[in-house]
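A quick aside before the break. I want you to see a complete sequence-to-structure record at least once, exactly as it would be stored in a machine-readable document. Don't worry about memorizing anything.
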Amino acid sequence: TYTIDRHGLVGGVKKVKDSVIYFGSSSSNPHEGYLANDVVIPQAKSGWSTRHFKIFCEPETQQYFIQDLGEGTGTFLKIDKSSELRCRSMISFGTMHLMLDLSTIPEEAKDGVLIIQIGGETHPGSEKKFSKDQSPITIGRGEIAKMKIKATSLSRIQCKIEYKEGKWWM
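That is the input. The structure line, written in tokens, reads:
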């Protein structure tokens, strides 16, 4: 368990308190001679890159953010409560990826059209559009899912996306 505050990792060895906490498999950068990560994950854990992701605090708003640093297998979060979907949100289920986007076509944008593109082994390149009137959208492999995806790695209902208060939420 780690404790973070607006300055960085509490009790960390990094001397600069820059509001950024790095996570990865390397403790130092041999070329630069500096601490590469505040939290080091053993390389035996597959998929971890040298510098995998960071958590940082935006000083003006005091909000915390997580950012994948583009190496390794990506950074994934388990969501226990509704989360607002933003343009180009990506959701992964095993080897399948859903790219969620908001339509910019004027007549679709005013209707809150959500575009879901499916990538991965099961449905590469397919796309579906949903209007706010079709909310909620259930995604899964079951017969009752509005967006059925034939993949044994999915639950019958994997997730639900709904339009409320002028925004899409998962």
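Two observations worth writing down. DSSP finds one helix and 16 strands in the chain. The longest helix spans residues 106-109. We'll return to this after the break.
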